[in-house]
Specification:
Structural class: alpha/beta
Number of strands: 12
Order of helices and strands: EEEHEEEHEHEEEHHHHHEHEH
Shape: globular
Largest sheet: 5 strands, mixed
Distance between the termini: 19 Å
Strand content: 15-25%
Strand order of the largest sheet: 3-2-1-4-7
Helix content: 25-40%
């Protein structure tokens, strides 16, 4: 049996997973990242996590076909080095060479968001679609794109950034240094800001009760929870948030024309309360929606496993 090993490198944890040729995840192993230890130490822990999952699954090292690494950085398509991982402080990092000091196997590497959309395409919500766009809603807005069953990394190979298209001219500052990006309006961070702004206008909103009267406890669920209980202010926040998100996705659909759009991240757990109106908004606002087919708009299925499965599947993209 051929097996494929994937490693998802995060700022907090390293997760190694083993996958078979049917894209089934056989087992996982976790270690803390502890990035302050430095580059060599973290890569050594990645190799240790890979050895750990072999023990969990009961697979010998010589049964592993290849290893894929999902990392929080764009990848230089020529050198295969990480361009910049801000949460680790790594620039131009040659992770493959360092990793191969521990594992003498074919090693592949990709951005973690690209691994996630690949995982969802081979084993998750988009497995029945040839092309899929993943939009993840968290502290920021990330994602990736698969076209024809293959990762689309842009014309120059440095990957796409779905969260950093312009949504509002001269809008709110974005973490990237620009103003008005999709991320500035559709991330959980933005949703929290929108909720707080509305709460300051409506002191009687149920959102105050949802957060115990403490603005520091407002989160991505606050407005949704209040809206579900009939709170007009909470519903207004939800409606505006969905419009921002829907406008951003409609523009991405217009440009890339995916068969499916997948929504991931914490906000996606709102399910159809989010997805139904979002789907309706996207389907009536993308270019030529009256004549061109609409993409499916679905919740991503695999959660944190998407990145591990996608990393493991990188070798199968070659």
């Amino acid at each position: 049996m051929k097996t494929y090993l994937g490693i998802d490198l995060g700022g907090t944890n390293i997760v190694a997973g083993m996958m078979d040729s049917d894209y089934k995840l056989l087992g996982k192993f976790h270690l803390p990242t502890e990035g302050t230890r430095g580059f060599e130490a973290v890569v050594a822990s990645m190799a240790e996590a890979a050895a750990g999952v072999l023990k969990v699954v009961g697979v010998a090292k010589n049964e592993v076909d290849c290893i894929g690494l999902g990392v929080p950085s764009s990848i230089n398509p020529e050198t295969r080095r990480m361009v910049y991982a801000n949460n680790l402080g790594w620039k131009n990092a040659d992770v493959i060479s360092e990793f191969k000091k521990h594992w003498d196997l074919p090693v592949y590497i990709a951005n973690d968001a690209d691994c996630a959309v690949l995982g969802e395409t081979v084993a998750g919500a988009a497995k029945n679609y040839q092309s899929a766009l993943l939009v993840t809603l968290g502290t920021g807005v990330g994602g990736g794109l698969v076209i024809g069953g293959k990762l689309f990394l842009g014309g120059d190979g440095f990957s796409i950034e779905p969260g950093h298209g312009l949504l509002v001219e001269d809008g709110f500052p974005c973490t990237c240094g620009r103003r008005g990006c999709i991320e500035s309006y559709a991330s959980v961070t933005a949703l929290i800001r929108q909720s707080v702004d509305m709460m300051m206008v409506d002191r009687h909103s149920l959102m105050w009760k949802e957060c115990g009267g403490d603005l520091n406890r407002v989160n991505g669920r606050t407005a949704f929870d209040a809206a579900k209980k009939g709170d007009a202010a909470g519903q207004a926040v939800v409606d505006q948030y969905i419009k921002y998100l829907g406008d951003g996705i409609a523009s991405l659909v217009t440009v890339y024309r995916p068969n499916a759009v997948l929504i991931g991240g914490g906000v996606s757990n709102e399910g159809e309360y989010l997805l139904k109106p979002l789907r309706e908004h996207v389907h009536r606002t993308y270019f030529a929606h009256e004549t061109l087919p609409a993409p499916a708009l679905l919740k991503a299925e695999l959660g944190n496993d998407a990145g591990v499965i996608g990393a493991a599947a990188l070798g199968l993209q070659e």
